[in-house]
Structure formats: structure tokens, C-alpha cells
Amino acid sequence: MTDLLKENKLLDAITTSFKIEGKVIRDHRVEVNADKNTVSSILLFVKNQLGYIHLAHMTCVDWIDQGEYEMIYTVYSPVDKITLFVKARIDREKPIMENIDTIWDQANTYEREMREMFGIEFPGLIGEHDFILEDWDQIPPMRKEFDTHKYAAETFFTRPGREDAKDVREEINKRSGAKVPDFAKKYSRE
Amino acid sequence: MENDKNSQKIVDYIQNFARKHSLFVLAYGTGCGAIEIPATMTSRYDAERFGIRGAATPRQADVLLITGYLSTKTLKRVIRVYEQMQEPKYVIGFGSCTINGGMYYDSYNTINGLDQYLPVDVYINGCMPRPEAVISGFVKLQELIMAGKANNGEKYRENLEHYRSNQKKIIKNWKMPDYNW
Fold first, then answer.
1. How does the average pLDDT of chain A come out, rounded?
2. A141 and B108 in contact by Cβ < 8 A?
3. In chain A, what are the domains?
4. Of A82, A101, B4, B80, which has the highest C-beta tally within 10 A?
5. Which range, A79-93, A127-141, A156-170, is most confident?
6. Which of B76, B105, B108 should be substituted to probe chain A, the one whose Cβ sees the most A Cβ atoms within 10 Å?
7. What is the pLDDT of residues A87-131, one digit of tens each?
8. Are the Cβ atoms of A134 and B173 closer than 8 angstroms?
């Protein structure tokens, strides 16, 4: 077990500068929970002062019960070998997040994808609105209220199954004489 | 082609024999199945002993191999490619995704059932089918050609309205050229 010196030093540097909370997840993993307005200044600070020069990933999580989206920025330092997660919550009704493609150019691609898949607006983001989807006229498909099963059943042609299709588990159990466990009975076709 | 006596002319027999042994497959890989094609083509399974080999462009190809799932965006390109191909032309659906959607059956972005959009001659099931299965599918296609039953290019022309209406259901912004055969 290491004593997590580097990780605690990084956490202290960020939390004392910005008055925010965070934690050391394990060795080489640090997480801070920021406000949505301070995210870009945190990212600039860790990039310019602490050497976290690599934006590994940025993504979004839909917390539909709490009415929020969570933006997660993953940055990495090749010197410290620490992955830092900067998390911020934004409102689900009016999802607007700061555009950070002035800090890292590659953020533009991630932001365009999030604009298309979650409907998050990034003021000042340059790029076509159609990114991966073509001619999409529904709500953004990665939102949790989008019922992909229903949409697929309405749009595409489902092939009816074979009439003599059998339940694999029951057939095997009939042959070997074993009993179907209780948790598996709800999947039965009979 | 069969004549009214349900038999083939000798010239058809020769024609079908020649077609059967020179199937040029369009090098167009969709989805994950394209990785099985190099294995099928190269020395271990050696598909060329059946006369199966690659073709560079759609206009030179006989067989369109749909290898795996088709997203709605790719379907547009596949239709375009299929309509550029010259007859006789055949379609092979490859893997369970082309048959019923496979593991993407409830995806918002991949089609379920290729034969609603293009006429399919042979389906090869499996996820993924191994090179033996691929070759067996091709052999099945050769049997169909030999029996004069693989004329789906003609079927597509005759039922164009049916296929077009299905295709336009997916591709809302239809900007494709209308070919007049």
C-alpha cells in the first residue's frame, strides 16, 4: 500500500485554490467536484501549473432522477502518472456548459458529440450540427427518457420469431433432469 | 432464367456455369464482419478456388456482401452502391445483425432485417460466421445461380416501389439519383 503522497498533494493544491471538495479514489486516481462555472479555470490551472497536459476524455452522465447532467473531464499528467476527474453538475432543463475547446482543441469533437447525443449547448462552439446522426428528428438519443426499444419497434421491421422456437434453458434441463432455478422462471416461454 | 417448360436452355446452362465460377465480391465492409473476409480470402481457406475474389468498384462486382450491422447512415450508401452494380447482382446478408438486428435489435440507429430494403439471396447466420460458414454461403449462392433462381436484380426492379417506400421510411432526406433501367 502506497502512502498516496502525490495524490494528496494534487488534491490539496486544487481544493485550497478553488475552495471545492474532492477525494483520492485510489493510487493514480483523483476526483474533484467542481461548480460548472469554475471548471474551465480548474482545467487551465492544472494544465498550466501542474502539468496535466492531456485531455483523455470528456463525457456526460444523465442523472434523470436528480434532474441533472454530470459533466466529467478526465485529464492526465504524463509526469505524475495521475488521472484527474473534474466533475460538474448542470441543470437538466437548460443544459448549457462552458466551451473548453480553447484550452484543448480536441474537446471540440467531444462537445459536438454531446450536443448531438444529449442536447447540451456549448456557447461559441464551431461545427456542423449534424455530427454522427443524419436527419435526426427525435429528442437526443442518449437521454434517458428516449425509449430506444419503442423507437426501433416503430421505425424498423422486426422479424417474427420461429414458431417452434424453444427455451434453451428448459430444453437442456429436460434432457438432464435438472430443475429451473427460481430467478430464471420469469424468462420462461411456456 | 427458366423458360416456360421449367427447364433451362443449353446457352443458359453455359452462362450460369460461367457466372457461378467467377463471383466478384465488392470490397465493401460494414460492421464487424469485414474482419472475416481476409481470413476467407487468404491461403488457409482460399476462397479463390471457388472463383470468389474481390472487385474494386461496384460496377465491376457481382456480389454485395453486407458484413454485419447496418446503421441507417450506412444503408444510404449501400443502396447507392447496390443500384450502381450491374446485373447479374447478388446480395449476401452476413451475420445475425442483417437477419433480425442481432444484439442491436433495439438500437435507434441500426436496421433490423436487411431484406426489407434490398433483395437478399443468401443469409449466413452466426455472430460472426467463421470462414467455413462464409464459403458454405457462397456455395449455396452458386447452387442458386446454377439452378437459375438467383435473379434478384430483376426482382428489385419489378418491386422498386415497395423497396423505395421502405427505404424512404428510414432515409428521410432523400437526395439520391433516380436510375432508370
1. 88
2. yes
3. 5-160 (3.30.460.80)
4. A82
5. A79-93
6. B108
7. 999 999 999 999 998 999 999 999 999 999 999 999 988 888 888
8. yes
CATH number of the domain located at residue range(s) B10-170 in this protein = 3.40.50.12280
* Cβ-based neighbours of B165, under 8 Å, separated by 6 or more: none
- CA triplet A110, A25, A143: central angle to 5 degrees? 35
User: Which sign, positive or negative, has the C-alpha torsion A114, A120, A122, A123?
Assistant: positive
Is A146 in Cβ contact with B105 (below 8 Å)? no
Which residue among B112, B169, B171 sits closest to A158, beta carbon to beta carbon? Answer: B112
Angle at which helix B10-20 crosses helix B131-146, to 10 degrees, equals 170
**What residue in B sits closest to A157 (Cα-Cα)?**
B112
Tell me the torsion sign for CA atoms A10, A14, A19, A20.
negative
H or E segment to which residue A8 belongs: helix A5-18
Residue-by-residue DSSP string for A59-99:
EEEEETTTTEEEEEEEEEETTTTEEEEEEEEEESSS-B---
* A155·B169 Cβ contact <8 A: yes
Q: Is the pLDDT of residue B87 over 90?
A: no
Q: Does the structure show a pLDDT above 70 at A45?
A: yes
Task: List, for residues B100-135, the tens digit of each pLDDT value.
Answer: 888 888 888 888 888 899 999 999 988 889 999 999
Q: What is the pTM assigned to this prediction?
A: 0.81
| A2 C-beta neighbours (distance < 10 Å), count | 9
Here the cell at position B96 is: 445475425
Which of B109, B117, B165 would you mutate first to test chain A, the one with the most A CBs within 10 A? B109
Length of chain B as a residue count: 181
A157:B116 CB<8 A: yes
The verdict on a CB contact (< 8 Å) between A158 and B99 is no
Helix and strand element counts for chain B (H, E): 7, 5
Nearest chain B alpha carbon to A137 = B172
